[in-house]
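Entry details:
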Amino acid sequence: MRRKHFECIILLVFTACLLLAGCKKNKITSENEIIWAFPVINLDDSWGENLDSGFMDERARLLNEKLHKDGYDYTVKFLLIPATEYSSKLPGLVADIANVGGINVNVAADPVERLFTNGVFTCLDNYVNDCRLKKVIPEKVWEATKFKGSFYCLPKIVNRSSQAYVSFNSDKIDIEKVRYFNGDISSLTSILGNNATIWISPIWPAMFKYLGFCDNDGVLYDSNGDIVNPFTDEKCIKMSETFDSLYAGGYLTRDDKKKKECEAHFGFTNRISSLDDEFAYFNGPWITISKYGLNLGVLEKSNKKEAAFELLDIVLSDPAYGNILVWENENPESGGLIDSHIYMRERFNWNDLIYEPDGWPDYFASADERTEFYKNVLIYPRIDVSKCDEVKTLKDKAMSYSSILYLDEPKAIKEFGSVEKYKQELAETKRKLKELYEIIIQKVYGKNK
């Protein structure tokens, strides 16, 4: 409950961030007021507390106070809109700044790109070249944020895909034995012993993220944005054969009740802080395919476009403003940084501007920390396969395959009547997946790959 409320505050608080600055030295009047609208999840609901429109007031006061102290004459006013109404209200909204997402952000053209196409957000091409944020966020992230070759939002966040990992249970084995594990899954039995059990979350084809690929709606991509056929790619085939061999040897279980008793785990996570194990191995960088997320833009109807953009640029580039929004304090105690590079990169939460050394967002990341973080984030381009009718079928079939892959024998018998019928269902589902991949690739590329 506390976590959900906290994430809501970060979104608002954080969003708020954007209404804060401008660069003229005039008397502060209503003409200098910049209105920032953003979506609020369950504003009047819950999560244990009543969130009314006043819960941002103190942060707004502190932000405006700092802006004026720093010589900016802009005043921020927050306009909170229930997320369920956000996309429908945006086109007619009287405001200057808004999130481009906050609703259905994982669907590329619905509604984010439609908002761009319909002119709800202004093109920012004339503003971005010399902005402060250009020095903080690398070019690969800026490029991933483009829509039809132009910028309509600032890349505030990167929505990372969860990463596949192998981890080891320090309660069951001597961690020193696996300290130098090199990622080779086929070596697990020799490291752990013949009596070891490995808990697995067999999400297909997401499990191939372990190889550095990226998946979306059942479609697998490489770092160039090309579709990878897991049934013909040598690395995917080898990994599948390795897990098949471990399953046949009785080493695998997907029973969550047995997880704590297993020597090793193969699963997915967004950050190490969510793992109980002492040692985890991630094979490859964090990856993302989300273009817009909760990024920020300037509304076309605004008559203060230049000032609104400058405000966004200042707030997103200066950690002091972000800390005020998160903690009502521009210099919160950091709680201590963790030196290990792997912890450094894994512990950025869903909003990568917030650094979380202890599993909770702790402070607004500095430019250096964000630069370090982005070294380990790979932006995956995607081929548009939305017009391929087979993609939805592939997504559904991949989910079905995941639900039955590597079932413990008692459960397989319970669900299918016998091990033989279970194997038949696996083989048939796999055959259909292979067929769908071949059709999609043929449609996209005009040939088989």
Q: What stands out?
A: The first helix runs from residue 2 to 16.
